[in-house]
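User: Structure please.
Assistant: Input sequence and predicted structure:
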Amino acid sequence: MAIRTPCTRLSKSALSSISGSTSSHLKCAPLPSAWHVPAQHRSMATVIPPVTQSSTSRNGPTAMVFMNMGGPQTVNEVGPFLSRLFADADLIPLGRLQNYLGPLISRRRTPKIQNQYAAIGGGSPIRKWSEYQAAEMCKILDERCPESAPHTPYVAFRYADPLTEEMYQRLLDDGFGKQGRAVAFTQYPQYSCSTTGSSLNELWKWRIRLEGQEPEGGGVRWSVIDRWPVHPGLIEAFAQNIEAQLETYPADVRKDVVLLFSAHSLPMSVVNRGDTYPAEVAATVHAVMTRLNFRNPYRLCWQSQVGPSAWLGAQTSDTVMAYVRKGHTDLVLIPIAFTSDHIETLFELDQEVIHEAKKEGGTGVKRAESLNGSPIFIGALADVAERHLRSGEVCSRQMGIRCQGCKSERCLEQKRFFMNTDRDVKEVIR
């Protein structure tokens, strides 16, 4: 299904509701201090029209496709969103009963989740932030990588509009089907087969459906940014938000505030299969704490468990309550695997976890701000993308090796497709 409005255009509401700003003059530098952005260089996103392959730069235009799970923009979109989410066996494996249990669970959960979205303003802000981040990143890339310009922002969500098939049809309508270059840029910094893997499976599926096995004109030329868990700009953005929240505590207790890094959990069946996500999240946490000189005690915990099966723990809600009851009433929650606010931060952490903690006496339980429109973070996105564009690599070396217990033929074929676009990449390891 093709969308009626180009994915490359930002809605007026998206532009008017965002107060953050970015710089088009950020420079690459290996040191965290290089991510400071002078206020006079910051500018708002502008509407970027669709481009075609008639553009004149040497290797451009380049489509920069932000992949994420997405979220319903209105309460009425919650039902379809949950239906797609629970139908995805990569994210929530329900075995042979997936087609029966998925719709059943989504229908039963819809009224509850609708109330949660109503409580945060009626919808998720993730599309607003994704469009903004992508557009601002492309403005920086146009300056720093003129040979692959113009860089055109697209957003592809797995479970909400704009869906992957809508984005792909827009790419074809904009002329990228004739050997146009496109970069699938995951907005999950830490790789998981359940998140980035699922999005790539969906992208590969719609490539086959919309372009065929051997597309006329050569098809879209894809490369993938599949993970970036310890990029210095990402680490600096997290660290600065933590430091800003720590400043709100009295100086005499600041060093004793417990930092609780919270990431979306995974079913243990996925973890035991060999998924790299827990290790990559831990790598992000360690890098952030290194940047903070390990000044505070910290722990990593996991949120958003669904259903009765075993999930990776300890759970965030249980962790907060356990520490509060032990007398640790000053805690900062850090959403370490999310690149913007959505239901998991605005409702689950802010309105459930923190609210319940305060009822138990945890008056010092707070949350660090999400990355959202942080110019440091958007500069990091641009740096990750620039290095990828200049490297000539189709994906990371890690993407070529499957999980130890993976038996998914779809995963194998998806990896073969993306990796075989680069002759220098060896056959996928079975």
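Residues 1-56, 422-429 have pLDDT under 50 and may be disordered.
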